């Protein structure tokens, strides 16, 4: 007899890394004493791994909106949106998001992961989904749940995408999935090429804008707006846990598609509705994003400065104004050691290894926010310099 739980053993490398003191995950934050700061094990560190890009989770206006909604409506909804959990606050948020994104309709979900998982209702065993190699795990899970065939094209490689489209069954439904700005690298999707191929092969396009809504584009609508191709995207998914500073997600697109998802997406129908506090916080954040474009302007200027400093220091970083700065390391253990050196220097980053990134391509992800001060950026730069020297990362260091 086989015990289904027999597989529940962590690899030996887990304990080895723990014993070395370089295990980077599940580090609990005790307090957030100020913008861009966290307290871990009694130490104040610069938070350089957060996706709270515009610093709105700590904004007093966003917090007060959440508190007021909680006082008025409670901490939960008591049911799914389909049954008895819908609030007028949800409908207000959906209308506001539709207007902001320039879409016919929006469906708000309880998490960004659930927004992408809802796509499973649109695909089936006769369909093919062709996704960028770097798309988020929740998009892959949606394909698995839906039962469609999954093909992966090399990151932003339009020649490879075309070969996969050309080799596919012309009678099958085809869906191209991409992220607007990729969460692991900070790179932006090659939407002009995707749009051209989608038209040529009759494919639909889904863009996960978790990391670009609120940041890219003249109005903050994301990568499609920045590239002038919003009409090329059939469905756009977002999460509230990045630029909007709270929890939740949404799917935006044509009204008939959203109506269908409201009734057939299992991650919508069978999940408790978004708590009032989160819906109210997202509404307040949207107002700030629209009224204060200087936040994203400062964010991008700071990111360009930091990425340039890291590149000048010898790290294999391409200078860019994207708030996600990927610092390639390669080896998992070396990545953990670099993370620990930065941590000891007072900077809290994110260590990414497989399956978050392809095997052998471990990296340190640095996330810049609009509320990082010049002094905090200097601390990040100094920490990377000290870590480089102690680990002897480059021959000229």
UniProtKB/TrEMBL annotation:
<protein>
    <recommendedName>
        <fullName>8-amino-7-oxononanoate synthase</fullName>
        <ecNumber>2.3.1.47</ecNumber>
    </recommendedName>
</protein>
<comment type="similarity">
    <text>Belongs to the class-II pyridoxal-phosphate-dependent aminotransferase family.</text>
</comment>
<dbReference type="Pfam" id="PF00155">
    <property type="entry name" value="Aminotran_1_2"/>
</dbReference>
<dbReference type="InterPro" id="IPR015421">
    <property type="entry name" value="PyrdxlP-dep_Trfase_major"/>
</dbReference>
<dbReference type="InterPro" id="IPR015422">
    <property type="entry name" value="PyrdxlP-dep_Trfase_small"/>
</dbReference>
<feature type="domain" description="Aminotransferase class I/classII large">
    <location>
        <begin position="49"/>
        <end position="383"/>
    </location>
</feature>
<dbReference type="InterPro" id="IPR004839">
    <property type="entry name" value="Aminotransferase_I/II_large"/>
</dbReference>
<dbReference type="GO" id="GO:0008483">
    <property type="term" value="F:transaminase activity"/>
</dbReference>
<dbReference type="InterPro" id="IPR015424">
    <property type="entry name" value="PyrdxlP-dep_Trfase"/>
</dbReference>
<keyword id="KW-0808">Transferase</keyword>
<dbReference type="InterPro" id="IPR001917">
    <property type="entry name" value="Aminotrans_II_pyridoxalP_BS"/>
</dbReference>
<dbReference type="InterPro" id="IPR050087">
    <property type="entry name" value="AON_synthase_class-II"/>
</dbReference>
<keyword id="KW-0663">Pyridoxal phosphate</keyword>
<keyword id="KW-0032">Aminotransferase</keyword>
């Amino acid at each position: 007899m086989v015990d289904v739980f027999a597989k529940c053993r962590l690899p030996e490398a887990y304990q080895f890394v723990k014993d070395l003191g370089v295990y980077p995950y599940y580090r609990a934050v005790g307090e957030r004493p100020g913008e861009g700061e966290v307290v871990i094990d009694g130490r104040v560190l610069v938070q350089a791994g957060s996706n709270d890009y515009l610093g709105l989770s700590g904004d007093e206006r966003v917090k007060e909106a959440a508190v007021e909604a909680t006082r008025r409506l409670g901490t939960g909804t008591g049911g799914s949106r389909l049954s008895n959990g819908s609030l007028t606050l949800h409908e207000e948020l959906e209308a506001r998001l539709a207007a902001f994104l320039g879409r016919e309709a929006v469906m708000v979900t309880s998490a960004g992961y659930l927004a992408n998982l809802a796509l499973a209702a649109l695909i089936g065993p006769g369909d093919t989904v062709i996704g960028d190699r770097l798309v988020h795990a929740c998009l892959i899970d949606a394909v698995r749940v839906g039962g469609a065939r999954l093909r992966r094209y090399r990151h932003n490689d339009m020649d490879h995408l075309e070969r996969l489209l050309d080799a596919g069954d012309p009678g099958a439904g085809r869906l191209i999935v991409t992220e607007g700005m990729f969460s692991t690298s900070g790179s932006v999707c090659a939407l002009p090429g995707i749009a051209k191929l989608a038209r040529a092969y009759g494919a639909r396009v889904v863009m996960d804008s978790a990391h670009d809504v609120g940041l890219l584009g003249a109005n903050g609508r994301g990568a499609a707006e920045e590239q002038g191709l919003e009409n090329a995207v059939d469905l756009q998914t977002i999460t509230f846990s990045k630029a909007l500073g709270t929890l939740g997600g949404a799917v935006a697109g044509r009204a008939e598609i959203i109506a269908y998802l409201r009734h057939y997406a299992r991650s919508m129908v069978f999940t408790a509705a978004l708590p009032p506090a989160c819906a109210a916080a997202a509404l307040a954040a949207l107002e700030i994003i629209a009224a204060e474009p200087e936040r994203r302007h400062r964010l991008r200027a700071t990111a360009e400065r930091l990425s340039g400093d890291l590149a000048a220091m010898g790290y294999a970083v391409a200078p860019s104004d994207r708030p996600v700065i990927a610092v390639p390391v390669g080896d998992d253990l070396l990545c953990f050691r670099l993370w620990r050196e930065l941590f000891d220097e007072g900077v809290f980053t994110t260590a990414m290894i497989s399956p978050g990134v392809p095997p052998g391509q471990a990296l340190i992800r640095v996330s810049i926010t609009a509320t990082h001060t010049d002094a905090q950026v200097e601390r990040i730069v100094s920490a990377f310099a000290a870590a480089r020297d102690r680990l002897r990362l480059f021959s000229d260091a």
